[in-house]
Design brief:
With 626 residues, this protein is an alpha+beta fold. It has helices at residues 2-19, 249-255, 259-270, 313-320, 336-355, 357-378, 402-419, 421-434, 442-449, 455-461, 463-468, 482-495, 510-518, 526-536, 544-557, 563-572, 576-586, 590-603, 609-619, and strands spanning 44-56, 61-72, 78-83, 87-95, 100-103, 106-107, 116-121, 126-134, 142-145, 157-160, 180-188, 194-197, 210-220, 226-229, 232-237, 240-244, 278-282, 291-292, 297-300, 328-330, 438-440. The strands form five sheets. A seven-stranded mixed β-sheet has the order 5-4-8-2-1-11-13, with no helix packed on it. It is 37% helix and 20% strand. The structure holds ligand BES and zinc ion. Zinc ion binds next to helix 5. Ligand BES binds at residues 163-164, 289-293, 314, 317-318, 321, 340, 400, 405, 577.
């Protein structure tokens, strides 16, 4: 069965690439049949987006105009854009003879996940399209923070998160990862704030509050990003720097100072960095993710600013996306592992080059633990544990699990180990160069890697099983972490007697602590939790990774002295990865449920709509419509 699907997909993908072969443009590898977009790019496809928008912090809306240039194929009678929660005020068309007039547009039926298709009539004479629109206060991509919700408490802040299909909630656009376009933007914001985008950026505020942006490399819509706030800038190297709240800048610069070195190590591995500058924006703690690979400007959570550079692996990850994801992009969200699995692989290669193999093997071991938890959570036979996903009719966010990230990683590592690193790296370098600014699906990727292996090697790797079957194949590579083995011994030696010697842990980094804490039994007897806390002060930790696992263990053990600190953590931090396990743990008991509801009552307002939606579901919370 899978062979048939594979074969069929290969033919399909060959047919698509042949059809467009004569024209070398960035639209060459358009994905046919994206289940999460209404667009029909094979009829009319966006080539450039020009935005003229203004942010209104009072009303919590963005309003303005999106000018759309496009390529019309065949005799297409319309271009279809994706929209969700947008008000379309009017649509105009500029004819090729430059006359401009209003046209009748049509909105399709509303779908709760995909939104609404916007149909705009076009013909031979249509030059450009102008959509006048505004967003709604509940737009899923947008978070509007009041001054009290930011670190400095003085200025408001706006941040967007477009991945996976939220770009359509702030811009009418063809919102599928298989469609690339260039963009420029004029953005008007309150004159006390600065605007930043996934584009060429200003480095300081100006009094007019008007900012101009340009992104000359073609990108898919999920990489459109905007943030508006009181941010300062500090350079790290010629081509790299950090934006953050002014009082945090120095600390951020210290933490991120290895970034330039990471870029160089990444370039040594897989080719030149393609986006000119690489800057990082450290956002307020409500940012729903750890990081987001917005091109030229990674968005990152402040929870990585630990003071000891121990969490900069996340930067290696987002930087790696500049190749895997942003340069070679998954053609639909069903191929999400090609974005994330590759990026985790590349992330660990960068960290190995920066910190050595012992260090990267710690990261890999944590990944394997996460993967086993995900398999348990989803069920070993769940179709969602296959690398190639089938997310049709569902929200692509459901595909964001450790399967794509970590099963994807181990599959690539297995190929590296089978082929030998030298040959594998040569292949990858060519892969990124040849497919730059193109789209890739699982089948096309497999077609490229399969010939690298001998029949004997292929029968050992079991590609089919890894990609199309649920669960984790037996031949999954096994990481070896000497540092974690040491932490295991330490835990075993002291657990029974419950006497903990802090001297033995002086040189431990965050990863070792996380591993140590993960290894505690659930529940851990209260007197042991108490003496651990007394010696190591976990409840007072300001390191988000340590806090997250300590609070989870505390809930499982009923260790109440940690709860006040957990409440503060859950109220200040909006990173979904930290929120979900804690809320999920709390709802397991009646008492915990009440505590979860009570915390969420105050905390919810500080979360991004993306995190709100996830926690709402866990707590069965029904927000009032806004
Ligand atoms: N691109 C992802 C975040 C994402 C994925 C947002 C899917 C929405 C839908 C980003 O690169 C990511 O993976 N972030 C991780 C970082 C980690 C794996 C180092 C995160 O936020 O935790
Ligand atoms: Zn990622």
């Amino acid at each position: 069965m899978n062979k048939i699907i594979l074969g069929f997909s290969l033919i399909l993908c060959l047919a698509v690439s042949c059809k467009n072969k004569t024209k070398e443009s960035h639209q060459e590898h358009i994905a046919a049949g994206d289940p999460h977009s209404f667009a029909k790019p094979n009829e009319a496809v966006i080539t450039h987006l020009s935005l003229d928008i203004e942010t209104d912090f009072e009303k919590k809306i963005i309003a303005g105009r999106a000018d759309i240039s496009f390529e019309r194929k065949k005799d297409a009678k319309e271009i279809i854009l994706d929209t969700k929660q947008l008000t379309i005020d009017s649509v105009q068309i500029t004819e090729k003879n430059r006359s401009r007039h209003k046209v009748n547009f049509k909105l399709g039926e509303k779908d709760s996940v995909l939104g609404t298709a916007l149909h705009i009539p076009i013909d031979d004479e249509t030059g450009q399209i102008h959509v006048y629109y505004k967003t709604s206060p509940g737009a899923e991509a947008l978070q509007w923070l009041t001054p009290e919700q930011t670190q400095d408490k003085k200025y408001p802040c706006l941040l967007t998160q477009s991945q996976a299909i939220n770009a359509r909630t702030w811009i009418p656009v063809q919102d599928g990862p298989g469609i690339r376009f260039t963009y420029d933007a004029k953005v008007k914001v309150p004159s006390t704030l600065i605007a930043l985008m996934s584009a060429e950026n200003p480095q300081r505020k100006n009094e007019t509050g008007i900012y101009h942006f340009k992104m000359k490399q073609p990108i898919p819509a999920y990489l459109l990003a905007l943030s508006v706030g009181n941010f300062g800038f500090s350079p790290i190297s010629e081509r790299c720097g950090v934006y953050a709240a002014p009082e945090m800048l120095e600390k951020c610069k210290y933490e991120l100072t290895e970034t330039e070195k990471m870029i160089q190590l990444a370039e040594n591995l897989y080719g030149k960095y393609a986006w000119d500058r690489y800057d990082i924006l450290i956002l307020p703690p409500s940012f729903p993710f750890g990081g987001m690979e917005n091109p030229r400007l990674t968005f990152a959570t402040p929870t990585i600013i630990a003071g000891d550079r121990s969490l900069v692996t996340l930067i290696a990850h987002e930087l790696a996306h500049s190749w895997s994801g942003n340069l070679v992009t998954n053609s639909t969200w069903n191929d999400f592992w090609l974005n994330e699995g590759f990026t985790v692989y590349f992330e660990y290669r960068i960290m190995e080059a920066l910190q050595g193999r012992d260090y990267s093997e710690m990261l890999v071991t944590l990944s394997l633990q996460d993967l086993h938890l995900a398999l348990k959570d989803l069920g070993e036979t769940s179709p969602d544990t296959r690398l190639k996903l089938d997310l049709k009719g569902r929200n692509p966010d459901e595909g964001v699990t450790d399967i794509a990230y970590n099963k994807g990683y181990f599959f690539l590592r297995l190929m590296e180990e089978t082929l030998g690193r030298e040959k594998w790296d040569t292949f990858l370098k060519t892969y990124f160069t040849e497919n730059a600014f193109k789209t890739m699906n699982t089948e096309a990727f497999l077609k490229k890697v399969t010939p690298l292996f001998s029949p004997e090697q292929l029968s050992k790797i079991k590609i089919e099983e890894w990609v199309y079957k649920p669960g984790l194949p037996q031949n999954c590579p096994k990481p070896q972490s000497v540092l974690f083995a040491m932490a295991d011994t330490f835990r075993q030696q002291h657990f029974e007697k419950n006497t903990w010697d802090a001297n033995g842990t002086k040189r431990w980094n965050t990863h070792i602590w996380v591993h140590f804490l993960r290894g505690l039994p659930s529940p851990t007897p209260l007197e042991k939790m108490a003496s651990l806390d007394k010696v190591f002060h976990f409840s007072q930790s300001q390191n988000a990774e340590i806090q997250a696992i300590w609070f989870e263990k505390s809930l499982q053990s009923g260790y109440e002295p940690a709860y006040p600190a957990m409440r503060v953590f859950l109220t200040e931090v909006g990173r979904r990865k930290f929120l979900m396990p804690l809320y999920k743990e709390m709802i397991k008991t009646e008492k915990g449920k009440a505590m979860a509801q009570d915390i969420y009552k105050t905390a919810r307002a500080n979360y991004h709509p993306i995190s709100q939606m996830s926690v709402d579901e866990v707590l069965r919370y029904h927000p009032l419509p806004n």
